[in-house]
Amino acid sequence: MPQNGIESVTVRVPMNIALVKYWGKRDEKLILPLNDSISLTVDKLTAETTVRMIPGVGKNTVEINGKQVELNSNKRYETVFEEALRLQRKRKDHSDSNGNQSVFYHFEVISKTNFPVAAGLASSAAGFAAIALGIQRLLNLDDVQANRLARIGSGSACRSMFGGLVHWKKGEKEDGSDCVAVKTDESNWTDLYCIILVFNDGRKKVGSSEGMKRTRETSTLLKYRIESIVPKRIEQIKEAYSNRNFETLAHVIMADSNQFHAVCLDSVPPIRYLNDASWQLIEIIEKFNENETRAAYTFDAGPNACVIVQKKDAKSLIYSLLQSIEIPSEDLKSAEEELKESFEFSTETPKSTVCSKLVISPMGGGPQD
Amino acid sequence: MPQNGIESVTVRVPMNIALVKYWGKRDEKLILPLNDSISLTVDKLTAETTVRMIPGVGKNTVEINGKQVELNSNKRYETVFEEALRLQRKRKDHSDSNGNQSVFYHFEVISKTNFPVAAGLASSAAGFAAIALGIQRLLNLDDVQANRLARIGSGSACRSMFGGLVHWKKGEKEDGSDCVAVKTDESNWTDLYCIILVFNDGRKKVGSSEGMKRTRETSTLLKYRIESIVPKRIEQIKEAYSNRNFETLAHVIMADSNQFHAVCLDSVPPIRYLNDASWQLIEIIEKFNENETRAAYTFDAGPNACVIVQKKDAKSLIYSLLQSIEIPSEDLKSAEEELKESFEFSTETPKSTVCSKLVISPMGGGPQD
Hints:
Two copies of one chain form a homodimer.
Chain A: E1 7-20, E2 25-27, E3 32-33, E4 37-55, E5 61-64, E6 67-68, H1 75-95, E7 105-113, H2 124-139, H3 143-153, E8 166-168, E9 181-183, E10 192-198, H4 208-218, H5 222-242, H6 246-265, H7 276-288, E11 295-299, E12 305-310, H8 311-324, E13 325-326, H9 329-339, E14 353-354, E15 357-362
Parallel strand pairs in A: 5-7, 13-14
Antiparallel strand pairs in A: 1-4, 2-3, 4-7, 4-8, 5-6, 8-9, 10-12, 10-15, 11-12
Domain Diphosphomevalonate decarboxylase-like N-terminal (chains A, B): 14-181
Protein name (chains A, B): Diphosphomevalonate decarboxylase
Domain Mvd1 C-terminal (chains A, B): 194-368
């Protein structure tokens, strides 16, 4: 507990990309998933968050990228702060005998993402993970408590609490106490990179929460996927990661991304996240993998692609992309810096598909204080 | 058997649309499906076929829409003619004791479809059904024999051999003898119409045979669909059809079309048949059905839509389509004639989606001599 009544902590937390997808909740309030999922962080897309603890039960505040968040219209923050208060009360009950003062705290959160929220890259996972980590440090919470704090903010946020391959276990218990994310492998595969392509899309998107609910209620394939397919894939990913077997890793990643979109299509009414640009990317990767599987695409609840490669193949992948996709030249320059390679590209031939942003990043890094 | 050594028969056979989709073969050679399917014919899209029987085992010929078919490069015809010869031989064995002469016949087929083959509307089902029906008449085959003849030409052709709701049973036997299509309901639902919209598409399509094979070999959802979903849906369609329950019929039709495309997406590499125009049509129908389910979309292995409605709702459906889809005015005129209704439409506002052909047709009519 702080001595001076005020303490603050700053953490930087990366977003994460699921290799086996989370889709469907078994408990809407506690955000308990219907199935396990497994993910890697994207080191360069982070939320940097300062959490300040202020004595007294007061009004919590959240500022994201310079804008105050209206907490009344965004209940997820309230849920997190209520849980933080509950944890303080619980500790007070236990520590009364030590003669501690019964002081409670509220929080001030100031968060900055290093990528535009409007780009369509899920930033809430990194943001809530950062808040949870901050509160964990300030209140000395254990990992299970911090995990829960992140999860009730934004389900997949609990997968951003560690580096390396992270396995979010659905758990069995009603109270969610066995629903936690864990780091699966002590040694990180530092050679994995991802290339994220943002494809803008005029269509109104079905939000993840709404989409998950619709699929759970109407898809006749989801239950089978959850019970019979996902558990095997989680094991395959863990084994492939630990053996540094890129080919198997890639096959499972692509198959699971496609199956996630298949159960979306099997919902009533059907949900569509992939657009023409996404499908063009799929075709480019199929061609790129013709002789040897060197890249894996994966798509979340939107058209943007995340392509996973080993560092050695990143440059030739970018060349393949450049054949038919227009990429902002400043992003190519950043890619050159990141890979310490130089690309020769002509911007003369106009391309049918335009990517509004490309980010290249190593994967698997953890949060930083 | 013909007395004069030459005999010919002319039949007109409609194409059919599956309400529960056939996707995947349990036997590639005999074209035995992995699952039951159920369909309705489209009365106005037909193949008119003359089959002439010529004495002697000779060179069979097939002409479609004025063009001679190169039989060497299209083995499916050969398979059908070989089966026809086998049936003649078999009968000869049995009839020798009657003192019949052992004369065999070969065939000349002249077929005309009343819609452009290039329009992307599956014409082969109607064509092979017509050939099978012609040969059935000429050789006095029973329904099971004729069914097999159609099926080994083009699987779903066996569903065009009858009017009304037709159930193609997958059967269990290895020789396919219990794999037959049957008419399920004595009384036809004459009020059902379909509106077919052809959306041209520059993409190279994965053919049905190749697609089915890929899905069977790689989709981890297909088996579950086949075993646990399809049988229920077949029963639901039969019951809804017999009770004239349009709402249930429509829900099952749409869910099954979407699930068929979902297992395509679940294949490796993923198969995509729906394009932006198809998805726009889906959204139009969702909106059209907002208060009451009055229309059902279904898509085969391509972007073209088939929308099923009761006759009373056909006009207002066409109005809904006209809001955002450009439809050739000559097709609207034919629709006016067919429905004995007149449409008011302006062709002034250009539409984002263009349909190159619209056909409106009653459903459920059978083949005609």
